[in-house]
Amino acid sequence: MAGIVLNVEKRERTGTGGARATRKSGLIPGVLYGGPRGAVPIEIKAKDVEMALRSGKFVSHMVELNHQGEKQPVIPRAIQFHPVTDLPIHIDLYRVEENSEIDIDVVVHFKNHEASPGLKRGGVLNVVRHTVKMRVKANKIPEEIVVDLTGRDIGDSIHISSITLPEGARPVIRDRDFTVATIAGRKAEAEPAAESAPAEGAAAEGDKKEG
């Protein structure tokens, strides 16, 4: 668990007008999903959510929700941000049990670029998947999937089967060995001027014929 505790209250005011009033009170409206209790509208202090976001351990991590002393592990599922201020304005949370399995997107990072012959020769890393949906224990959500580029050459495709995955994690897609990235050659440079346009002499000769 990320060590983040959010104190929440049940939100009485719903709808667009209710959400607007909630924000004016320094709170962020949200919805708590999952489990037999169904969806419950909630509100959280904006400063608590902003602090959790700054920690870097909020999104896609299990955190603890506290409602009047009753605690519940949850996963942040979706956060909506203001288009101008970039501050959070709505949050969806999902109830989980610590040992339950969940499906979650895990970010993909690449290392050892300098050890890739293809990249050293001017190739380009083409990232097909920036995240991979993984099935993991709720209390053991990995920070990242690391792809080692050592020895990768132009024309190579990096499939999920060739990547060392975090312990206890497995891809949700099981019926195919999907591609995570490829090493592609750079596109050909612009064609030489002699091939793209007639030489000055040829152009002059053409002018004479027209005359």
Question: What would you say this structure looks like, in words?
Answer:
The chain has two domains: 5-96, Beta Barrel (Ribosomal Protein L25, Chain P); 102-184, Ribosomal protein L25, C-terminal domain (RNA Polymerase Alpha Subunit, Chain A, domain 2), CATH 2.170.120.20. Helix content is 18%, strand content 38%. A hairpin with a 6-residue loop joins strand 2 (27-33) and strand 3. It has helices at 15-24, 46-54, 117-120, 193-196, 200-210; strands spanning 5-10, 27-33, 40-45, 63-67, 70-81, 88-95, 101-111, 124-127, 131-137, 145-148, 157-159, 170-171, 179-184. The longest helix has 11 residues, at 200-210. It is elongated. A six-stranded mixed β-barrel has the order 1-3-2-6-5-4. A four-stranded mixed sheet has the order 10-7-9-12, with no helix packed on it. A three-stranded antiparallel sheet has the order 8-13-11, with no helix packed on it. It has 211 residues and is an alpha+beta fold. The chain is built from five helices and 13 strands.
